[in-house]
Design a protein that fits this description.
By secondary structure, this protein is an alpha/beta fold. It contains 16 helices and 13 strands. The chain has helices at residues 16-26, 35-48, 70-81, 112-126, 141-156, 161-164, 168-176, 182-198, 210-222, 259-267, 271-281, 286-297, 302-317, 320-334, 354-360, 367-375, and strands spanning 31-33, 53-58, 85-90, 135-139, 202-206, 229-233, 344-347, 352-353, 379-381, 384-385, 392-393, 396-402, 406-412. Helix 1 (16-26) packs across helix 2, helix 8 (182-198) crosses helix 9 (210-222) and helix 15 (354-360) crosses helix 16. It is globular, with a radius of gyration of 26 Å.
Amino acid sequence: MSDAVTTIEAAPPASDRVREAMAVTLRGCEELLPRAEWLRKLVRSESTGTPLRIKLGLDPTAPDIHIGHTVVLNKMRQLQDLGHQVIFLIGDFTSMIGDPSGRNSTRPPLTREQIEANAQTYYAQASLVLDPQRTEIRYNSEWSDALGARGMIQLASRYTVARMLERDDFTKRFKAGTPISVHELLYPLMQGYDSVALRSDLELGGTDQKFNLLVGRSLQVEYGQEPQCVLTMPLLEGLDGVEKMSKSKGNTVGITDDANTMFAKLLSISDEMMWRYFTLLSFRSEAEIARLQQDVAQGRNPKEAKVLLAKEITARFHDAAAAERAQADFELRARGGVPQDIPDVALGGAPLAIGGLLKQAGLVPSSSEALRLVEQGGVRVDGTVISDKALKLPVGTYVVQVGKRKFARVLLSA
């Protein structure tokens, strides 16, 4: 896609502070477009004392934020700490259209009720990364609803179908004869119009949002504004190390996960993927990460580096003490020990079959799943692996374990 025409001149020499801001901007990013314009904006901001307006929009398509979302939120916080004004935009209007970015078909639009329910949690969770006292919260329904039919038609007149079809997913679908609904073409326009409404200097997004971010640049020129710069961040792979982190893929680390779960999930990533997580999620310096990587290459156990990463991320969303306890819990479980905080469950009906006991204790969703796990050696009673699917337990108290992380202390009565 061709970039927007701009009248911004080449940037004057940068101060140490501006060079630091540029280094912070570039760390871990995929692209900064156009780099010279962003440098000029930074120089101008320093000379005038006027903070730059930095925008991130998220559609509340799910009720929770995972650490994949924090890749861009971390960048926002870094720029916020440099004194710039960050704008956390909740796309309550665009969610009702459905973003087709990177998809073979459009994402189904959400209902108003779903959007409002999801939006309620978004900012509270984003505030675990951003400084809420210095964050401007906006909803794009503020200006999008006010456009009306006439305004939407006028907005659509400022962009061509030919340029819209340059977007990769639209191009592929058009060539394949896959239908493209007209409302899908409106999504990039509405996201771009957000930048006009907010007079954005920089918009952040994942690599799959590049086209939409550049539409915002073009529309700002159409409306007589200085165009925003565009910063794209990589899409973080999930725990499987293959697919993009996504709740639908079941490969996420939620930022509201309890400390023990968060720590254990982060330790489950591969040694190779660990370095990508360090680059995109850690606040350690690049030099420190490089030293860790060199130490591992020279024989240090990679698990030691992974523990540092897991403790850093867990402490960020909980606290240092919780991260220490999570590490102790993980190591205890790894040695076959029993955590102290397991739930107590009282059951009747002894003697009770192992499948029914596991289901009634809430350790498995069904008796058939319980028997499958017994067959695979994934069930322990008082530390002993159970292999008999017909086992019935008499009256007594038992510590029951399913897999590595599910425990219950079962008081079984007649």
